[in-house]
Amino acid sequence: MNFTLPPLHWWRTVFFLIPAITLYTIVLGTLSIGSSLFERSGRFAHWCARAWSRLILATTGVRIDIVGLERLEHDRAYVFVSNHQSTYDIPIIFWSLPYQIRIIAKESLGRFPFVGWHLRRTGHMLVDRRHPRAAIFGRASRLMKEGLSLIVFPEGTRSRDGRVSPFKGGSFYLALEAGLPIVPLSIVGSRHVMLKGRLATYPGRVKLVVHEPIDTSGLAGGDPRAARAFAARVREVIAPDAEADVGRALPGAPKPGEGGSGSPREPEGLAPHRQT
Question: How far apart are CA 252 and CA 40, in angstroms?
Answer without folding.
Answer: 45
